């Protein structure tokens, strides 16, 4: 009996103690809220008078108390930071709110602007992408689209250049001779050649000519092979190299040769040959084109009137090509199947997996997708297909670049413009080649 009484006493004591703790916590929480309210009230009064230097410390103290009102107080503090010009504190708080998922659309925009003003585009883009993921805001998406393309322009002393698939080593012409530069405009090989091809990615060799003789050269400019005419008639033209092979002309016809200029496909002689891509190449016999595999098998017989060729001498890009039959252009895949139902009066070759330039009967240019559907209406005087998210277009007499959303990205001011390859494009201004180097931010 005595034990039962003792147990009851202990239970009663514990209940009283628990009640005291709840009361203490309730009083303590109320005190925190009251303290926070007093700080915010005073800060509000200073902020209303634009006395931000006094309002800001009070708001900062208030948010450290961390109640359910803290998010709203942070918003007030951001307004003061912005009005006071405290960009770094504004950005820090927005980053915190973004991480917590409480940042507002305008806060993302303002913080991104501050980043851009400080030449921190990477940080701005990353923050906006975070905002898009959290809010799915069209305003933030539009902001991203407007700012995703940063670029620098470098001038050169050359009058012509050949775009390459990666634009690491670019053939350039100074009005007399050809040489090579990199994408930053730095000279790699002196301009001493009468002609020059791009370098082959598979062998790191190119073909140049000096005084009518063709040579294969290394990236250092060393001679690797020579077409000296000792075993075969000398070539009269080399217009490209492709997957470890030279496309050269002997006796009026083009075929494939190794880098010692020896024939490697004597049964394949054509009037024209494009570079191989997507496992196939376009070839011409007489006045008709066909498509063959890398091994020489016929994919499309010689009944095509024309085949569009892109900036790196290929008909196909991402398994799609543009060909002409019965006076109209249409898409085919690398197995020869017709893609889509639409046909076009004029067309350019695809440069990538992005939109393809086509024109109507009035010779105004627009763009189609890979299924042949018109996605950008006919409105330009000329155009190149998209690559790296941009396309060169001619408005009146000048060339510039647009985005996939048909928004101008690089102003129309150039005499000529080539597609972007590996983030670099070649343009011409006042008769000189310039290099535009793009920093492109993916979605």
Roughly what percent helix? 25-40%
Strand order of the largest sheet: 1-31-30-29
Kindly, what is the distance between the CA atoms of the first and last residues, rounded to a whole number of angstroms?
77 Å
Q: How many individual helices?
A: 7
* SS elements, strand count: 31
Which residues form runs of ≥5 with pLDDT under 50? 7-13, 20-27
Content of β-strand: 35-45%
Largest sheet geometry: 4 strands, antiparallel
Envelope shape = elongated
Rg of Cα set? 33 Å
Instruction: Please state the structural category.
Output: alpha+beta
- Mean pLDDT, all residues: 92
What structural keywords apply?
443 residues, 4-stranded antiparallel β-sheet, 7 helices, 29% helix
Protein architecture, described:
Helices cover 29% and strands 35% of the residues. It has helices spanning 2-48, 52-64, 70-84, 87-100, 105-117, 121-135, 138-147, and strands spanning 149-155, 160-161, 170-173, 178-181, 187-193, 195-196, 205-210, 213-218, 223-227, 237-242, 245-250, 253-257, 272-273, 280-285, 288-293, 298-304, 306-307, 320-325, 328-333, 338-344, 346-347, 356-359, 365-368, 374-380, 382-383, 390-395, 398-403, 408-414, 416-417, 424-429, 432-440. A four-stranded antiparallel sheet has the order 1-31-30-29. β27 and β28 form a beta hairpin.
């Amino acid at each position: 009996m005595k034990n039962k009484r003792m147990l009851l006493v202990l239970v009663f004591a514990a209940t009283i103690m628990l009640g005291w703790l709840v009361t203490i916590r309730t009083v303590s929480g109320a005190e925190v809220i009251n303290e926070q309210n007093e700080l915010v009230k005073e800060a509000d009064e200073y902020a209303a008078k634009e006395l931000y230097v006094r309002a800001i410390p009070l708001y900062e103290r208030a948010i450290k108390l961390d109640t359910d009102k803290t998010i709203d107080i942070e918003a007030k503090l951001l307004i003061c930071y912005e009005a006071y010009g405290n960009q770094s504190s504004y950005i820090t708080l927005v980053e915190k709110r973004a991480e917590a998922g409480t940042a507002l659309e305008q806060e993302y925009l303002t913080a991104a602007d501050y980043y851009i003003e400080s030449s921190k585009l990477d940080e701005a883009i990353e923050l906006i992408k975070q905002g898009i993921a959290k809010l799915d805001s069209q305003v933030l998406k539009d902001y991203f689209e407007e700012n995703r393309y940063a670029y620098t322009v470098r001038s050169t002393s050359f009058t012509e250049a050949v775009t390459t698939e990666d634009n690491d080593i670019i053939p350039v012409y100074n009005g007399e001779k050809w040489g090579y530069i990199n994408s930053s405009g730095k000279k790699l090989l002196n301009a001493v050649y009468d002609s020059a091809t791009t370098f082959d990615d598979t062998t790191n060799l190119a073909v140049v000519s000096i005084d009518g003789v063709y040579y294969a050269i290394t990236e250092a400019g060393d001679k690797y092979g020579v077409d000296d005419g000792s075993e075969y008639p000398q070539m009269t033209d080399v217009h490209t190299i492709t997957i470890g092979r030279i496309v050269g002309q002997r006796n009026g016809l083009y075929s494939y040769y190794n880098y010692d200029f020896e024939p490697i496909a004597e049964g394949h002689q054509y009037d024209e040959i494009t570079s191989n891509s997507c496992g196939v190449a376009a070839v011409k016999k007489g006045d008709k084109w066909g498509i063959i595999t890398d091994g020489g098998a016929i994919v499309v017989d010689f009944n095509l009137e024309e085949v569009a060729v892109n900036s790196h001498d290929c008909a196909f890009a991402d398994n799609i090509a543009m060909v002409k039959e019965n006076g109209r252009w249409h898409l085919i895949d690398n197995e020869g199947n017709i893609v889509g139902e639409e046909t076009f009066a004029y067309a350019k070759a695809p440069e990538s997996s992005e939109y393809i330039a086509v024109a109507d009967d009035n010779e105004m240019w627009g763009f189609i997708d890979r299924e042949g559907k018109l996605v950008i209406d006919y409105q330009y005087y000329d155009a190149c297909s998209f690559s790296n998210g941009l396309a060169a277009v001619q408005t009146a007499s000048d060339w510039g670049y647009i985005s996939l959303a048909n928004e101008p990205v690089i102003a129309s001011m150039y005499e000529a413009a080539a597609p972007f390859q590996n983030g670099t494009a070649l343009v011409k201004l006042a008769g000189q080649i310039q290099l535009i180097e793009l920093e492109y931010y993916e979605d």
